[in-house]
Design a protein that fits this description.
Blueprint: E1 14-20, H1 29-41, E2 46-54, E3 62-65, E4 68-74, H2 80-99, E5 104-108, H3 112-123, E6 127-131, H4 140-146, H5 148-154, E7 159-162, H6 165-173, E8 181-183, H7 198-208, E9 215-220, H8 229-237, E10 244-249, H9 261-271, E11 280-283, H10 289-294, E12 298-301, H11 310-317, E13 321-325, H12 331-334, E14 341-343, H13 348-360, H14 362-380, H15 382-393
Parallel strand pairs: 1-2, 1-5, 2-4, 5-6, 6-7, 7-8, 9-10, 9-12, 10-11, 12-13, 13-14
Antiparallel strand pairs: 3-4
Helix pairs in contact: 1-15, 4-5, 8-9, 8-13, 11-14
């Protein structure tokens, strides 16, 4: 696996402006990863501020989350022109309040909003870091195919951060200069996401309203086409074993732009069936996500597109037996050393067979979970990732 270790003797305080698509209390994988990284990497020599888009108009423009300044740009339902008109005074405030004093603009993914901050970086001579988030979205090959403004602004970034070996290879294959590329996997807080004993597991199930006498299969994510929760629901509904419950934690609200009504309908269709293997439980979202992992036995990631999935790292760190879609250079890397079970994209029967095998074999679940915990701790621990990030920041 590629490694990047950079050192610097600089003692000057550096200021980083993080730009994300969503930030706490609104939920996205990139936003949560950004929040975790800030919490671990911030210190006397490194400070952060955040700019994010927001769909919840009740949230304030200027805010502080865990002591970090957060600025929100509302997304309007009335189209791009209205959105931009609302943004103008806020962008002016951000420009003079933050941008003129910061050293680095760190973009989490490439969206139309990113174009503005790349332009600001170019005009005001700020270093621009672009984190590539997923294959098929903002990797160099997809960007080249898109062409136009997307390609032009992508090339204006000074450095590129890739969270997975697959994305690293895509960058190298595109001819990106090595000195502009850094490998930095997503990190997981192994102190927060940790295994618990049987007594604590049962206590958590009681607190969360989960069945205490059931084997629990967990999914966490939006009800989107990419996440494929309906595939998991269908696979679970057909296993030949009783006492296996399915818990979905994630947004199925139509207010979320990532949620697909067709996926919600497909999941509802399964939930309405008779003679299911166990209870089917849905939770919109929880700030106690670690407790849902700790209360569960199996975690499934049926996604067809990912960069470096936070939820899978969290489940592994908690010591769960995990199953995931085979995504080259992503989940297959995470599961090296028999740390989990892989199935092909949209392979209903393949996923069903894995669920059946894991449900029936407690010893296998224990073995896989222990290896997953060790790998998450040794290779993706948040402390290690944050240190590598700090070293990189102070080297540029």
């Amino acid at each position: 696996m590629p490694q990047t270790l950079l050192k610097s003797n600089s003692t000057r305080v550096k200021q980083v402006l993080m730009v994300t698509g969503a930030y706490f209390p609104e939920i996205s994988g990139a936003g949560l990863q950004c929040k975790s990284l800030i919490g671990e990497a911030a210190g006397d020599r490194l400070s952060f501020a955040v700019v994010t888009t927001s769909r919840d108009r009740r949230l304030p423009f200027r805010d502080r989350v865990d002591g970090v300044a957060v600025y929100r740009l509302p997304v309007s339902r009335f189209g791009s022109l209205v959105t931009f008109a609302v943004w103008l005074p806020r962008l002016a405030y951000i420009l003079f309040k933050e941008l003129l004093g910061i050293d680095i603009i760190h973009l989490h993914g490439l969206s139309r909003k990113s174009y503005l901050f790349i332009a600001f970086g170019f005009l005001f001579r700020k270093t621009v870091l672009l984190k590539i988030t997923s294959m098929g979205e903002d990797d160099p090959v997809s960007i080249e195919r898109a062409g136009g403004l997307r390609k032009a602004f992508f090339r204006l970034a000074n450095f590129y951060i890739s969270p997975s070996p697959a994305l690293i290879e895509s960058c190298r294959g595109s001819g990106m200069p090595q000195d502009k590329l850094m490998y930095l996997p997503n990190g997981v807080d192994c102190r927060r996401f940790r295994p618990v004993g049987k007594a604590e597991k049962l206590k958590l199930r009681g607190q969360l309203g989960l069945p205490e006498d059931s084997l629990i299969v967990l999914f966490s994510g939006h009800f989107s086409q990419d996440k494929r929760p309906h595939l998991l629901a269908r696979a679970w509904s057909g296993i030949k074993m009783k006492g296996v419950s399915l818990v979905f934690v994630g947004s199925s609200s139509a207010d979320s732009y990532e949620v697909s009504p067709e996926v919600v309908a497909a999941v509802n269709e399964v939930a309405a069936q008779e003679n299911l293997p166990g209870k089917f439980i849905r939770v919109q979202w929880s700030g106690r996500m670690e407790n849902y992992y700790q209360a569960s036995d199996i975690f499934v990631l049926p996604s067809v597109r990912e960069g470096m999935p936070n939820v899978l790292l969290e489940a592994m760190a908690t010591g769960l037996a995990c199953a995931a879609t085979r995504l080259e250079g992503i989940t297959d890397i995470l599961f090296e050393g028999s740390c989990g079970k892989l199935f092909e994209a949209d392979d209903l029967q393949g996923l069903r067979n894995i669920l059946q095998e894991l449900a029936e074999n407690h010893t296998l679940r224990e073995e896989i979970g222990a290896k997953a915990r060790q790998k998450a701790h040794e290779e993706y621990g948040l402390e290690k990732v944050a240190k590598a990030y700090r070293d990189f920041i102070f080297s540029i």
